[in-house]
């Protein structure tokens, strides 16, 4: 059974949980525990961390890629270089551009972190977040289905969780019909209902 370290409220842990649900991997999840023990596995001191018969691995998107490849799920992560790149570019976009945009608004309005209490910075973060979600809306309007094309992939796991966070954070949001239709499609998946649409901050 796969050992997964990290609290279930973490968006990055939920990426792994949803991936495991899609593949059908049994998971033994545990909270992060003592800092020293966590850093012995991941020197960054961050979750998620997994451990299997191959050893320890960290970084959520890398873990998702690893699990899909290990279990031969070319539907989630294609083998052909171009098709794989289409999936991975959106995963990377989520981890870099999209995550950077929402950090200020989410940390200020949901986590109430004192370092993110400035109203101007929160507003700027919300604007940037909305603008990037408009880019996603345009992509979904083009595909008419999922982020990387007409089938569900790992890109939808990482971005689906980000869309849920966008919807749950108390900011003004534009009407984005392709995103709304996308969420409705994701709701048909048990893994999203369990780990993506649960409203956990």
From TrEMBL:
<keyword id="KW-0808">Transferase</keyword>
<dbReference type="InterPro" id="IPR036282">
    <property type="entry name" value="Glutathione-S-Trfase_C_sf"/>
</dbReference>
<dbReference type="InterPro" id="IPR040079">
    <property type="entry name" value="Glutathione_S-Trfase"/>
</dbReference>
<feature type="domain" description="GST C-terminal">
    <location>
        <begin position="80"/>
        <end position="201"/>
    </location>
</feature>
<dbReference type="Pfam" id="PF13417">
    <property type="entry name" value="GST_N_3"/>
</dbReference>
<dbReference type="InterPro" id="IPR036249">
    <property type="entry name" value="Thioredoxin-like_sf"/>
</dbReference>
<dbReference type="Pfam" id="PF00043">
    <property type="entry name" value="GST_C"/>
</dbReference>
<dbReference type="InterPro" id="IPR004046">
    <property type="entry name" value="GST_C"/>
</dbReference>
<feature type="domain" description="GST N-terminal">
    <location>
        <begin position="1"/>
        <end position="75"/>
    </location>
</feature>
<dbReference type="InterPro" id="IPR010987">
    <property type="entry name" value="Glutathione-S-Trfase_C-like"/>
</dbReference>
<protein>
    <submittedName>
        <fullName>Glutathione S-transferase</fullName>
    </submittedName>
</protein>
<dbReference type="InterPro" id="IPR004045">
    <property type="entry name" value="Glutathione_S-Trfase_N"/>
</dbReference>
<dbReference type="GO" id="GO:0016740">
    <property type="term" value="F:transferase activity"/>
</dbReference>
């Amino acid at each position: 059974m796969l050992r997964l370290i990290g609290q279930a409220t973490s968006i990055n842990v939920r990426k792994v949980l949803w991936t495991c649900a899609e593949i059908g991997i049994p998971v033994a999840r545990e909270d992060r525990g003592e800092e020293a023990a966590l850093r012995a596995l991941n020197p960054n001191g961050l979750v998620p961390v997994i451990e299997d018969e191959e050893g320890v691995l960290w970084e959520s998107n890398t873990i998702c890629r690893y699990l899909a490849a290990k279990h031969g799920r070319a539907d989630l992560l294609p083998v052909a270089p171009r098709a794989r790149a289409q999936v991975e570019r959106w995963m990377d976009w989520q981890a870099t551009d999209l995550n950077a945009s929402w950090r200020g608004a989410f940390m200020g309005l949901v986590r109430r972190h004192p370092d993110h209490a400035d109203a101007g910075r929160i507003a700027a973060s919300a604007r940037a977040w909305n603008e990037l979600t408009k880019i996603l809306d345009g992509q979904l309007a083009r595909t008419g289905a999922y982020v990387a094309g007409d089938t569900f992939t790992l890109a939808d796991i990482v971005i689906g969780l980000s869309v849920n966070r966008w919807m749950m954070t108390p900011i003004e949001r534009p009407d984005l019909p392709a995103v709304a239709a996308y969420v409705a499609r994701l709701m048909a998946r048990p893994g999203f209902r369990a780990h993506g649409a649960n409203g956990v901050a």
